[in-house]
From TrEMBL:
Name of the featured protein: DNA-binding protein
Cited InterPro entries: CBASS_pafABC_assoc_protein, HTH_11, WH-like_DNA-bd_sf, WH_DNA-bd_sf, WYL_dom
Residues covered by the Helix-turn-helix type domain: 6-59
Positions of the WYL domain: 138-203
A Pfam entry, by short name: HTH_11
Superkingdom: Bacteria
Length: 242
């Protein structure tokens, strides 16, 4: 990459990290010398980019600094279009509309040279399996999730057994076979996955659940990782010896 591209990429690298990044780490990522990193940082600071650094600690980018959309690289634009097409094929109606609006906003501010890179990007995420029709509005789930509010649902499991539950939504999964609400279930006192097409009725409650969603999400991810490890270990034991 040329020097201008490297300076922009350096800003993006600093945005990715919450903690200071050493000059040595920056030099390794861009395959340049530490002396070059020092010069690049000075040039960024001279143009108004709020990079702060201390000897022996590293560099950080002050919060609030942002790059204009025209600074997107071709790879970044293709990644955004891939995401938009994924949402178009798998998202709920609210997210599909949001993806279309976001795409229009990006196209409106891109310079002419970059518009075809975005609109004609040759990256796709086709979905050849139409998921079952949801009985609920997932926009309500996503709203409750962001607000940390409980949901009361009427649910039928795979054996068609009905149940009434209060859940704490923490994530929504958009798979090919179905859309899934990940939540802590008060009835089962554990994490459960609820298919949106099997939720017959849903009410958003005024109650907030008594835990941070980020903490619950990490606990669920740890539980899923442990389950995968147990499954892999069981599969290895049951596999015949070569």
């Amino acid at each position: 990459m040329n020097r201008t591209e490297r300076l922009l990429a350096m800003v993006q690298m600093l945005r990715r990290h919450r903690h200071p990044v050493t000059a040595e780490a920056i030099a390794r990522e861009f395959d340049v010398s530490v002396r070059t990193v020092y010069r690049d940082v000075i040039d960024l600071q001279a143009t108004g980019v709020p990079v702060r650094g201390e000897a022996g600690i590293g560099y950080v980018l002050d919060p609030g600094f942002d790059l204009p959309p025209l600074m997107f690289t071709a790879d970044e634009l293709e990644a955004l279009m891939l995401g938009a097409r994924f949402v178009r094929d798998r998202g709920d109606p609210g997210l599909v509309r949001a993806a279309e609006d976001a795409t229009a906003k990006i196209l409106a501010v891109l310079p002419p040279a970059l518009k075809p890179v975005f609109s004609d990007a040759s990256v796709f995420a086709p979905n050849y399996r139409e998921p079952p029709r949801d009985r609920i509005d997932l926009a309500v789930v996503r709203r409750a999730l962001r607000a940390g509010r409980k949901l009361e649902i009427a649910y039928r499991d795979l054996q068609d057994r009905p149940s009434e539950r209060v859940i704490w939504p923490i994530a929504v999964g958009y798979m090919e076979a179905a859309r899934m609400v990940v939540a802590w279930c008060e009835l089962r006192q554990g994490f459960r996955h609820f298919r949106a097409d099997r939720i017959e009725r849903m009410t958003e409650l005024d109650q907030r659940y008594p835990a941070r969603r980020s903490v619950l999400l990490k606990s669920w991810q740890a539980e899923m990782a442990a389950e995968r490890s147990r499954h892999d270990a069981t599969s290895q034991k049951s596999s015949p010896a070569p």
